[in-house]
Specification:
Strand content: 25-35%
CATH architecture: 3-Layer(aba) Sandwich
Oligomer: single chain
Helix content: 25-40%
Order of helices and strands: EHHHEEEHEHEE
Distance between the termini: 26 Å
Structural class: alpha+beta
CATH superfamily: Gcn5-related N-acetyltransferase (GNAT)
Shape: globular
CATH topology: Aminopeptidase
Number of helices: 5
Length: 171
């Protein structure tokens, strides 16, 4: 049985392991391999601890926990960071599931919890960015009712520009 709860600082190492392996699995062939190979759980733990401390207000971190108490997924959301942001707009910053458990419903459960928390927090719209070439994630969000809204951006990874497309969904 899976439960979703608020993330604690004790969850940071598990979340970092999920995030790093998630990147290395989902973005292989999309983000340069040199960048993915440079990711380490240890470095991510340090970064995640700093983010977690700073984000206690304004950002919600949720974890999916299995029947054995192991963290198997993580989602993070807060106010939309774009130029056209309004008080009603939220943004899903991250959603990762332990790669070996993708397809087990953990992502759906986390996403539904995010939607519920965001709605309770007064948000009526959720936006997110997905790597354009990440078709698996794009299909996941489309099945959850998200639509691409035409906005695009790009990030640089080891000198390679990787494009992203923005999705939105009414809560």
């Amino acid at each position: 049985m899976l439960t979703v709860r608020a993330m604690t600082e004790a969850d940071v190492p598990a979340v970092s392991a999920i995030r790093v392996t998630g990147w290395q699995t989902a973005y292989a062939g999309i983000v340069p391999q040199s960048y993915l190979d440079g990711l380490t759980v240890e470095a991510d733990v340090q970064q995640r601890r700093r983010y977690f401390e700073r984000s206690k207000e304004g950002t919600t971190n949720l974890v999916g926990v299995d029947a054995h108490g192991q963290v198997v997924g993580w989602a993070c959301f807060g106010r939309f960071r774009g130029n056209e942001a309004s008080a009603a707009m939220s943004e899903l910053y991250a959603l990762y599931v332990q790669p070996s458990l993708i397809g087990a419903g953990i992502g759906w459960m986390l996403l539904e919890a995010v939607h519920s928390h965001a709605h309770t927090d007064g948000f009526s719209l959720m936006l997110l960015w997905v790597l354009t070439a990440n078709t698996r994630a794009r299909h996941f969000y489309e099945r959850a009712g998200y639509i691409a809204d035409g906005a695009v951006q790009a990030d640089d990874y080891d000198g390679v520009s990787v494009s992203e497309v923005r999705y939105r969904r009414t809560l």
